[in-house]
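Limitations
The C-alpha cells in this dataset are predictions for the assembled complex, not deposited experimental models. Users should treat interface geometry with appropriate caution, especially where small molecules or nucleic acid strands are included. An illustrative entry is reproduced here so readers can see what is and is not provided.
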Amino acid sequence: MLDLHGLHIRAALLRLLREFFFERGFLEVDTPVRQPVIIPEQYIEPITAEGQFLQTSPELCMKRILAAGADTIFQICPCFRKGERGRRHLEEFTMLEWYRRGEDYCSLMADCEDLLRFVVLGLPAFEAEKKFETRRLAHIDFSKFLEPAEHITVEEAFNRFSPVPMARALEQDLFDEIVVEHIEPKLGIGKPTFLTDYPVQLASLAKVSADNPQVAERFELYIDGIELANGFTELTDADEQRTRFLAEQAAIKNDQGRQQEIPERFLNDLNQLADAAGIAFGLDRLLMLLTGSDTIQSVVTFAPDDMI
Amino acid sequence: MLSASDLRKGLKLQIDGNPYIITDFEFSKPGKGQALYRCRMKNMINGNQFSKTYRSGDKFEKANLEERKMQYLYHQDEEYHFMDTQNYDQLFLTVEQLGDNVNFLMDNMELEVLFFDDRPIDVSLPIFVNLAVTKADPWVKGDTSGTDTKPVTVETGYQLQVPPFVEEGDKIQIDTRTGEYVTRVKE
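Predicted assembly:
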C-alpha cells in the first residue's frame, strides 16, 4: 500500500497527465469498464464478470467515439488481464490511452516525448508545495526522460541485439523470447527509445505501412528496458480488421477452447473512421521509472497482497 | 498437473524423473506478445542448474516430496546412517548427497530427511546447532596482530573462524545455513 508521500506523487502524476491533455485541447472520456464484447486477442485473456468482460483496454469504445466525430480524446482507466502477475505486471493496472483523428503514429511518438518532458519538468512544482518529500525523487536521474528519443526498427533491433535474424525468429516462433531476453534490456538506456515498424504478422490493430507492406505502423516506447507504451496508426479498413479478428478468434479457440465473439458494432463504426492513431500507455510503469521503483506493486495504491 | 501460471519461486517440480526447485522466476510479456515464464531450476539431487523459458500451454508435474522425522546414528566411511523414529527403519545417505550438512551431524541428532518418490535425497538440519570445540589455539592476551578471529575445529571435524576468546572445550552455536559462528554457549 502506498504511504501518504507515495499517494501524493501518484496524484501529482495524474494531475500532470490531465493538464498535459487539457492544454492540448483533448477531450477526456470515460467508457464502461465492463463490456459484453471485447477485442479478440490471442495473448490477452480477459477476466469475466457475470457473462461479460472487464475491459482489457478501452480501445474499442474510444475508437467508436472517434468514429462519432471527436478529434482528440484521452482516458485514464483501470484495465484487467487475467494471469498477468510479475514485477511489471498486475492483473489490474492503470492505463492512459489517447487517440488523434487524421494523424499517424509519428504524431503519437512526438506526443510521448512532449508528455515525458511535461511530467518530469512539472513534478518539482508539486515538490515545492511540500506535498511529498523532495528526497523521494532526489536520486532519480531525470535526464533519461528528457534526452531526444532514439528510433530503431524491430528489424534493426534484431540485427543489433539478437543472436538470430528477425525472419528466422518469426519462422521458428522465437520472436517473443528473443525480444524479452536479448532486445528489451538494451532499449531506452539513458534516453527514450521507440521500437518501430513491427512485422505485419504482429500488426494487431495497426495499419500496414504504405511504404513497406512487410511492416505495420506500430511502435513501443522503452525507457530503462521497460516497455511503457504501445501505439499505432489505426487500421480503419473494416474488412481487413474482420479478417484479423477471425484469425485471432480461431487462435483463441484453439489455445484456450474459448469462443470469443467478434465486436460487430465496432467494425460497423470503423467504416465511419478515416485516418487515426492511438496509443496505450502504462501509467503505473511510468510511475515506477519516475520513483525508481523495482516493482509495479510498490507504485499502486493497493497491491493484491495489500487486500488480503 | 500444474500449468505455467502456477510457476513461482520455490515451487518443486518433477522433470525427466528428477526433482527440481525453481530458484529464480520472472513473468514477462512483450507488447502484444505471449506470456513467458522464465525459470531458473535447480536439480534437488545433484545441484545441477538450468534456465528455461516456459509458455502458457506448458504443463508440469509436482515433485512427490515428503519429509520424515529421523535420527542420525553414525557414519561409516562415506555412508551416513539414519533411523526413522516412528518405525525404526534404517537407511543411509552418502557424503555427496549430504554436502556441507555433514559438518553439523552429531550422533542421535533429530532431523528431517527429505524423500523423493520414497528415495532419501537430503536432510534439513535445525538452523542452529551447538558443537564442542576440540582444537583451538590459546588466546594470547595482549595480542596486537589486529586479527579479530582465529580458526578452530569442532567435534564433527568442521573448521571455522571464531572470536579469539573461544577456547578448547567451549561449546559454540553455529548457523547451519551459513556455517558461521553465532555465539559461545554456556552449559
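Some entries come with short summary sentences. For this one: The first strand of chain B starts at residue 2 and ends at 3.
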